[in-house]
Amino acid sequence: MKVMDSRFDVLVSTTVAALLMFSAVPGAQAQSTSSSSSSAAFSPASSAQQARKSAPAADARLDPGSVSNSVYRNSGFGFTCKIPAGWVLRTEEMNAREEGNSAPDAGKAGRVLLAAFARPPQARGEDVNSSILIAAESVAAYPGLKEAGQYFGPVTEIAKAQGFDVDGEPYEFEVGAKTLVRGDFEKDIGTRVMRQSTLVILARGYAVSFTFIGGTVDEVEELIAGLSFGTPRAK
Fold it and tell me: Which CATH architecture has domain 6-229?
């Protein structure tokens, strides 16, 4: 895997930044580490905001996708992702908060496409709050970004700084006929372990990231199995 250019060191992906920022909404602070949720995701929001403030505007035709019958579909990027029954969506809330803390044109450089949680992020629980987060960022926001694997440079550094263990180097991962790059992380939170896997692909001038969080490896793999590429079929 090529080593990332040093210019990436001050940049952080929307994927992890949005998770952290959303956990800071009123009421979410009351959730302790022992009750665990995606608030344990790693990323200083201020770094992500600064990156977006200086980022060139991306293609305004970014397809936000849509959800129907518990399936998220994005025809622009050509993929679908199944959402477990009963999960709550917080996509618009995340984007509203991101835009409220960024420059006026920041929304053109990146967007959360899907944010789905097993329970509301601010709700207490005894287990890991499983979640799916899909985001797209303009490649123009990361000068020198040529390969999906480079996207993991700053993410891995921040993960380690926040107490996450990195499960090996990023590696190529097949989803149907599509090849993505995948990174796996885990963190002990009391009596449980939060497991996070992020898959990244470069497409249509964007870095598209798919983050899956769960309490077990099997749970994360099951969520990933709901991701597929190809022409979405309307139902």
Answer: 3-Layer(aba) Sandwich (3.40)
Strand partners, 68: 71
Give Cα separations from 38 to 137, 201, 229 (angstroms): 20, 22, 25
Give the span between the Cα atoms of 233 and 42, in whole angstroms: 35
The CA–CA distances, whole Å, from 154 to 4, 8, 10, 161, 191 equal 9, 7, 7, 11, 28
- By C-alpha distance, which of 168, 103, 177 is closest to 141? 103
The token pair at 72 is 């998220």
pLDDT digit string (tens) for 15-34?
555 454 444 333 333 333 33
Structure tokens at 195: 């497991």
Radius of gyration (C-alpha) of the chain in whole angstroms: 16
- The whole-angstrom separation of Cα 57 and Cα 140 is 8
Q: Which two tokens stand for residue 105?
A: 């044109």
Could you count the other beta carbons within 10 Å of the beta carbon of residue 174?
A: 9
User: How many Cα atoms are found within 13 Å in the side-chain-facing hemisphere of 160?
Assistant: 10
* CA pair distance 83, 46, nearest whole angstrom: 30
Q: pTM for this one?
A: 0.76
Q: Which of 66, 14, 63 lies closest to 41, judged by CA?
A: 14
How many angstroms separate the CA atoms of 90 and 82, rounded?
A: 15
- Asked whether residue 117 carries a pLDDT value surpassing 90, the answer given is yes
Report residue 96 as tokens.
Answer: 């509203």
- Give the orientation angle of helix 91-100 with respect to helix 14-22, to 10 degrees: 100
